[in-house]
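Help needed: design a sequence for this.
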């Protein structure tokens, strides 16, 4: 079975997502599992792929590869309440997903390209390192991962985000920064904070 779907000028939670298209090939297998081969596109360009099998017996089991092909990170912004923060830039890489849907085992690497964390209300724009982000055993690993704001002094993170159990995710991250210019922003209609702010910080988040 194959299917095609296109949603023109999709908007989710007031977040424009462009023209979103999907093409899927779905085939039942003799052992009761199902093979899926799919492509997700935005504005006519391929941005992600999925290939693998799914078995619906019991809790449901998946074994698939998810590929990111210069995927715009802004497509995730609609899932963030009130867009208090957002992302821009691109992600590339491959993730392998296996196990149950409630407790997936995810491994792989994602490369960030010109990627930023932004917040208009708080005047924050932080650039991510272009280094690969490693996911191992459903843990997002921060290995001296650096983020930059409005000057060359980074915020450095070390630790992990464990999402192996989606109903009970855990984080353990240490962060440090010296003379980080976290805010350099002019007032606008959405401003909660504006002006300039420099911080020295050393702490942890659990």
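Sure. Designed sequence:
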């Amino acid at each position: 079975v194959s299917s095609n779907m296109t949603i023109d000028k999709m908007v989710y939670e007031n977040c424009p997502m462009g023209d979103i298209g999907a093409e899927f090939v779905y085939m039942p297998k003799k052992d009761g599992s199902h093979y899926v081969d799919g492509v997700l596109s935005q504005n006519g360009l391929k941005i992600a792929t999925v290939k693998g099998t799914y078995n619906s017996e019991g809790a449901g089991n998946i074994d698939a590869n998810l590929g990111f092909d210069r995927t715009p990170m802004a497509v995730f912004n609609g899932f963030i309440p009130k867009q208090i923060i957002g992302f821009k830039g691109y992600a590339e890489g491959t993730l392998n997903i296996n196990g149950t849907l409630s407790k997936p085992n995810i491994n792989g690497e994602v490369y960030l390209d010109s990627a930023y964390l932004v917040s208009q209300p708080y005047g924050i724009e932080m650039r991510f390192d272009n280094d690969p982000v490693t996911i191992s055993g459903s843990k997002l690993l921060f290995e001296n991962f650096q983020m930059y704001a409005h000057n060359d002094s980074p915020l450095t993170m070390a630790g992990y985000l464990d999402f192996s159990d989606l109903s009970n995710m855990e984080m353990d991250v240490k962060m440090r920064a010296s003379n980080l210019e976290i805010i350099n922003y002019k007032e606008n209609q959405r401003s909660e904070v504006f002006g300039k702010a420099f911080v020295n910080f050393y702490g942890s988040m659990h």
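Residues 10 and 17 are 5 Å apart (CA to CA).
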